Amino acid sequence: MTLKTILAGATLALGLATGAAADGHEPVTVGFVYVGPVGDGGWTYEHDQGRLAVEAEFGDKVETVFVESVPEGPDAERVMTQMALQGADLIFTTSFGYMDQTIAVAEKFPNVRFEHATGYKRADNVSTYSARFYEGRAVQGHIAGQITESNVIGYIASFPIPEVIRGINAAYIHAKEVNPDVEFKIVWAYTWFDPAKEAEAATVLIEQGADVILQHTDSTAPQAAAQAAGNVATFGQASDMAEFAPFPRVSSIIDNWAPYYVARTQAVIDGTWESTDTWDGIAPGMVGIGEITDAVPAEVKASAEALIERLRSGEYHAFTGPLNKQDGSAWLAAGETADDGTLAGMNFYVEGLSGDIPQ
Amino acid sequence: MITLEKRPQPSRLWVFATPVLAVVLTMLCGGLLFAALGQNPFETIRTIFLDPLFSEFAWFYRPQLLIKGAPLVLIAIGLSFGFRAGIWNIGAEGQYIVGAIFGAAVGLAFYPMESIIIFPLMIVAGALGGFLWAMIPGILRVRFGTNEILVSLMLVYVAEQLLASMALGVLRNPDGMGFPGSRNLAQYDSATSWINQSAGLHWGVAFAFIAVICAYVALSRHIFGFNVRLSGQSPRAARFAGVNPSRLVLICMGISGALAGLAGLFEVSGPAGQISIDFNVGYGFTAIIVAFLGRLHPVGILLAGGLMALTYIGGEIAQSNLGLPIAAIQILQGMLLFFLLAVDVLTNYRVRLGKRGIA
Predict the structure, then answer these.
(1) pTM metric for this prediction
(2) CATH code of the domain made up of B38-324
(3) Does pLDDT of B3 surpass 90?
(4) Which domain, by its residues, includes A70?
(5) Would you place residue B154 in the very low, low, confident or very high pLDDT band (cuts 50, 70, 90)?
(6) Do A48 and A85 share a domain, yes or no?
(7) Gap from A296 CA to chain B (nearest CA, Å)
(8) Contacts across the A-B interface (CB distance below 8 Å)
(9) Structural domain includes residue A197
(10) Helix locations, B145-202, DSSP H
(11) What's the CA gap between B52 and B60, in Å, rounded?
(12) Angle of helix B58-84 versus helix B92-110 axis, rounded to 10
């Protein structure tokens, strides 16, 4: 017997189970595959908060399972297959690097629904979802540009993928807008979660004169490094990281997956689930901005809150022209806003940033 | 009063009994740990050690054991030669990465041509890549007397940077929308190491078994094996017997590097599929545990590799079915090596109860 035939049998059985679940006869099982530990205090922690929200919302009607710290590769494929075999009806795979594995497993289990975070490959039973974190980055840049005294802002970048590059560009544009002398120093850590590497990156940036540090990695290690340095401000990443408030952490980007996870689970229960591509920002609440502390001057706080409001209302887009690319070529004319296609595949810096995107 | 008395020579019985004892002790202490975490210890131990082999979905897990175990066994066999001779290659992870890069580069260079010659060329390139990377610490030791432990370990981090640069640069998938990572070799018929994916069979599994047999023959029947063992037990005697220590260093480093490179090549062209920034998940380091758990004996390594794979896969099942945190699984794996080293004392010493006689 080949795997295909066995799996066909298994999926048939699962199909029946899913049908029963849709009628409310047994709990719907929702699986979560995490790239870091649930206690990372950042990315994975917020996904797990979303999972807990699903449990709180549906109680006995839903059962959730999760596996943490799953490497992006064959291990992820095995974990997903195992969840599907054990009867999961809906599986959230919460890291970009799970993309090909999610598609591969979804092919074998046509009756299980998959939701892949931050990727771009979809299928009839695979949805993708992500948040417009760059809106939050714009707010960070706006604050950072005004509170820096050395005019050097450090940026701990994770991997050179469009999502991270978007964040750097959005932060830089809005820092430059309020402070023409501002300079960004970027360190590529090549990790989403590695406290030791992140602390090292933060220390290097502080030594190079940065007095504000933005991070696109998930641990609180840079916050601790900034706290040790004394006069360096930071922003919480993915999670509020409020334990470092009011200083060094002066604000944060909070990923709020709970409403989305609850809605998608509801769709499975109702039998209305469809493959979609969701990209939500501040307005629907998927991107939250953590409290701006009093360590930030009152007028800066007020203007940052005004910016948040303009982003929320849709009156302002975080990428609004005139903007040039790093090489000086024109990108957006005055008043023109970036289209989602360009943003989704963004692989260039805007004018003014120094250094190259690692190739 | 308990005293230890040195045995005139290592006990043959305990050489074989200590690994089993270590596993039993690990199960006992692991059970206590799981009980302290509020789990049923018997159910947890059963889930980790037996469910992958005998549960309802064992037809899926058994092939996964081959996939997870093959690279461990292949690398550990290579390491065992050097470890026996007192040559400490700690950098198999780096050789694994470079082998994967070399092999994948050859495969990708031919894309999309289909030919039977491509995969054999990739195998040669993979072995060569690992071999060359291992030659750096080898030659430095022979020529300048550097410490191969440090040099080989440091080269792991160099290899990781090389991997990132390959995934972002020359080997990046031109159709990948700017995202890092190469084309998927598992979907390229001439370059894939899969023989039968549903049975968990790829060429790495075949090579792992071949390596076990070759190592067994070499160590027990061939003068090379005698020289290796002699050098480890008594370097002076080995020199009198005509063993050239420099050549032995290069041969042992070369074998371990080439086998690690092969493991990387088979992984990248099969289970992993592509060169990505975090392609390596620590097989090169885990293989060190496997080599010692298997007493540096080929058959022992085969069994140890299987056991290690079992704890990984069983650990994932325990996470998703019982909600066990991954840290508990990692403690269990750590205990295994700890107890092995601890009970090793029984091999070389006799335990005596009562007062030591006056000499």
Answers:
(1) 0.84
(2) 1.10.3470
(3) no
(4) 3-131
(5) very high
(6) yes
(7) 36
(8) 100
(9) yes
(10) 148-168
(11) 8
(12) 120
